[in-house]
Amino acid sequence: MKFKSIYSPDDYSSGFFILRRMQEIKQLLNNAKSIVITTHKSPDGDAIGSSLALYHFLKSNKEVTVIVPDAFPSFLNWMNGSENIIHYDTQTEEAEKIIEKADLIFSLDYNSLTRIADLSKPIDQSSATKIVIDHHQDPQDFADHYIVDTMCCSTSQLIYEFIENVGELDKLDKTIAECIYCGIMTDTGSFRYPSTTSKTHQIIAHLIDLGVDGSKIHQEVYDTYSEHRLRLLGYALTEKMIVFPEYNAAYISLSQKELKRFSFKKGDTEGLVNYPLSIDGIKFTVLITEKEANISLSFRSKDDFYVNKIANEHFNGGGHIYAAGGMLEMSLEEAIKKVEEVMKQNN
Length: 347
Ligand code: 5GP
Ligand code: MN
What we know:
Blueprint: H1 9-13, H2 15-31, E1 34-39, H3 45-58, E2 63-68, E3 86-87, H4 92-101, E4 104-108, H5 120-125, E5 129-134, E6 145-148, H6 155-165, H7 174-187, H8 198-209, H9 214-222, H10 227-239, E7 241-244, E8 249-254, H11 256-261, E9 284-290, E10 295-301, H12 308-314, E11 318-319, E12 323-328, H13 332-345
Parallel strand pairs: 1-2, 1-4, 2-3, 4-5, 5-6, 8-9
Antiparallel strand pairs: 7-8, 9-10, 10-12, 11-12
């Protein structure tokens, strides 16, 4: 029997509701033999952190595989289990065989099949029970169960709460704790975005008690730049940042040629979009990146300026109120023009 369950923050405050739903989820976990964990394309720290945390939690007595649509940045390679992750774009056949066998599929840190690119086909076709655990708005209808809290800072925090709600926090070890720590750290901008709550800090305190060295994880993620990456950052801020104080907005654009000049590697532009927000008065920033086949856009904002709606209405994307993404199929010049127009309109 299938049922839909969307957990909202209100549901979380209803102990009885959680208990009843969690009993059903526990039953599914107990009955599952082969579990697949998936996350979104261009996986970030929260995507890989939440996936590997759940992987380690489940793998003691189940067959569990993490499958991602494509590669993730090398600054996440230190996480235990990252070497076992299957990449759908380069290991398609192997991934499809595993998905075919799966009886339970988790979708972590995404809520629409469009977010997993070509991996959407085998996931959509699979008859396995599907559980979404995510913190984005407007979940699409493709799964059987939804554990969604749009107020939560990260999917990694939701994984901690999931383990808490199935009553197995005693199973948390240092390995799981490191993955959760990394996901929360990266999605909260190192515990500073407004989504960081006292509960987040309580969880972090517990993770540290389990042996996590937060300073070491911060170094692994943020102090492992290549020289090229740091020079690309310098170039982007000095030469490529366009600031419109009158619109409280700024953008940075990077062409393929420029990326090649700095020997671009996956993850090298991560975080770049945030820098213009540190200018006094700037509330809205965009990073426009020319990819091989299209233009990718990253949006960030603060205060009373929300970017998810803008990403959705103008840039075929979506996300959170202060962090969103999108994609355009046009030239870089046309994309820049479009961004400038949107900045003018939404001033
Ligand atoms: P980033 O700029 O780091 O790639 O993405 C920022 C946020 O927006 C992330 O939470 C990410 O999940 C979300 N996001 C990025 N691209 C898209 C997209 O194309 N569609 C939707 N719905 N969300 C996106
Ligand atoms: Mn996330």
